[in-house]
Specification:
- The chain has 289 residues and is α/β, with parallel strands linked by helices.
- The protein has 10 helices and 14 strands.
- Helix 8 runs parallel beside helix 10.
- The termini are far apart.
Length: 289
């Protein structure tokens, strides 16, 4: 099976190099890496280009501006569809470390079951505690419930996250790419639900050889994270929930803003939450200064 891996670098040179090096040390050989530098500073694109210029498994491209998660992954997916005959596209965060046997175990499981679904593994923190497995979705509230463990080889879930998400190429060609209206966050949830409507399921696999630091650029700057989580939650429900579910979700959102949010976040983040709600209603993106 041929696997194409899509990775973004955004001012995270050390993490990106560690991620790529872990892939290159893998015992799985039939893969290619499509890396996009997403408007990084300090000549990070040039550094990556110089380091990997002679490796025919790695294709490096550059964007002068920040295109966000959905845009750069769609760009990489487009390149993959043009240049590769891959069976699966693996969306992989640059702050992930792939253990030596992970890719081979992952691919063998997919090949053994012969079902072209969406797959993702158990994701662990650097100290090896479980970070995420998969999630179930409640469209009435817009909230998610994460799996805490997998008793068997696999578990069907409503959606998986984009930190390490394997998508069959035929599915991408069928339902198109990530919805770029989301920019970042909830786009993978949207993709999994669109896939489910076409008969493609999402599975969490009992394979746990991957480490995720989860220190993305948006989470380091909390206002960005707050803005997109509120904005995209409403956009997502507008797209997938029934009218009754959508209207009920506002009562849940109001409760969260009044009771929960003030206890955990300072005023500046509260302001960004309100901006996210406002922009979701108008279906626009507020440009950060």
């Amino acid at each position: 099976m041929q696997l194409a891996i899509s990775i973004l670098n955004r001012n995270g040179l050390d993490d990106t190099i560690n991620c790529i090096e872990s892939i290159l040390q893998s015992d799985f050989l039939t893969f290619s890496v499509f890396l996009l530098d997403n408007g990084s500073k300090n000549n990070e694109y040039e550094t990556l280009k110089e380091k990997y210029w002679d490796n025919d498994k790695i294709t490096i491209n550059k964007s002068d501006t920040n295109l966000w998660f959905t845009w750069w992954n769609n760009f990489n997916i487009e390149q993959i569809l043009k240049k590769e005959k891959s069976d699966y596209v693996l969306l992989l965060n640059n702050d992930c470390i792939v253990e030596k046997y992970f890719l081979s175990k992952f691919v063998k499981w997919i090949e053994r079951h012969r079902q072209k679904w969406i797959y993702w593994p158990i994701i662990k923190w650097p100290h090896w505690e479980i970070q995420a497995i998969g999630s179930y979705l409640n469209l009435r509230t817009g909230s998610s419930k994460r799996l805490k463990s997998i008793e068997w080889e696999y578990e069907e879930v409503d959606y998986v996250t984009g930190s390490c998400m394997a998508i069959p190429t035929e599915l991408i060609e069928k339902i198109w790419w990530l919805d770029d209206k989301f920019f970042a966050y909830r786009e993978e949830t949207d993709f999994c639900l669109r896939a489910k409507k076409e008969g493609y399921k999402s599975y969490s696999l009992n394979v746990d050889w991957i480490i995720h630091k989860e220190e993305s650029a948006t989470k380091k700057v909390k206002p960005y994270y707050t803005y997109f989580m509120f904005r995209n939650r409403i956009l997502f429900l507008k797209k997938h929930a029934s009218l009754i579910q959508y209207l009920f979700s506002y009562f849940v959102l109001l409760w969260y803003l009044i009771i929960i949010f003030p206890k955990n976040f300072w005023f500046r983040n509260y302001k960004y939450a309100l901006k996210g709600i406002r922009d979701s209603l108008w279906n626009i993106w507020w440009v950060f200064k």
